[in-house]
Design brief:
elongated, alpha+beta, 60% helix
Length: 288
């Protein structure tokens, strides 16, 4: 409403000034054009503000839901009487929901970046409108107060944009931190005895030193693991032949492959990044 009042006053001033100067029709047209430009940019900016804030609020809501899922996953253990298969299905269901929320976060982050680009473009257009308003102020010098009022409104708009940019920068840090956390995994490669001594694996289902299978312990310390970015780390060099290498952690076999890599070595190649890490964000490779 304040913009409309200012623009109407600007139009009236220009008409009056032009009448006194013998009717400068071109100046009237210029004032009308700048009035339309200013209203259009103001409406576009207001819309972008609302879209961006809504997008950020939606992302924060999804982040909160994801943190809740992570809290559940960290405290999960087999229910009384629950089979290992049922427990695994329950973990996979939560992991699936977490992956869905991760995808939503990434999509919303991309949308926020797109909106920020539009805001920057709008800011440039507002600066151009400000320059033209300065030119009109010089032409209609006797009514300079009205032009100054318009410039003050533009300054307020810039402050609003700066405030929004500060809020976006603050929430960008939260989003980037969460995305980095979601893309973080840990891995360790070692011989069976070394991994057992470090408390990473043990033999489960063993009766009187017979039978059983090697599995990752439920509670292990990550101090001996290497931290990685799963979007950048797609291959792992293993100092053992393929037939003497075993992935102890839970990863679907169709998401990776082990290939020879020189004498007494092999390479673990991840074929499907999201599917490979969906069950666990840690990789345990045992060599013999």
């Amino acid at each position: 409403m304040r913009y409309a009042v200012i623009l109407l006053a600007l139009t009236a001033v220009a008409v009056s000034s032009c009448s006194q100067c013998g009717g400068q029709e071109e100046l009237i047209k210029a004032v009308d054009a700048e009035k339309m430009n200013l209203m259009a940019e103001k409406n576009r900016t207001d819309s972008l503000y609302q879209q961006t804030l809504r997008q950020v609020d939606e992302m924060m809501s999804v982040l909160a839901a994801l943190e809740a899922e992570e809290g559940i996953l960290k405290t999960m253990g087999p229910e009384r009487g629950e089979s290992a298969a049922d427990f695994r299905r329950r973990m996979e269901d939560i992991a699936r929901r977490m992956n869905e929320k991760t995808a939503m976060i990434r999509k919303q982050a991309e949308e926020i970046q797109r909106l920020k680009g539009k805001l920057a473009e709008t800011e440039r257009k507002l600066a151009a409108v400000s320059q033209k308003a300065d030119s009109l102020a010089r032409l209609v010098s006797e009514q300079q107060q009205e032009i100054i009022a318009l410039r003050q409104q533009l300054a307020i708009s810039r402050k609003t944009i700066d405030s929004l940019k500060a809020k976006l920068a603050e929430k960008d840090q939260i989003i980037n931190s969460k995305v980095k956390e979601l893309n973080t995994a840990y891995y360790i490669i070692g011989k069976r005895d070394d991994l057992m001594n470090k408390g990473v694996i043990d033999k489960q289902g063993q009766v009187l030193f017979f039978g059983g299978r090697i599995a990752v312990k439920q509670n292990f310390d990550l101090k001996d693991f290497t931290r990685i970015d799963i979007t950048a780390m797609k291959e792992f060099s293993i100092p053992a032949p393929k037939d003497r290498t075993t992935l102890v952690s839970n990863h679907d076999t169709d998401t990776y492959e082990l290939v020879p890599n020189g004498e007494n070595q092999c390479m673990l190649k991840i074929l499907d990044e999201k599917a490979f890490w969906k069950n666990a964000k840690y990789l345990v490779v045992m060599t013999e």
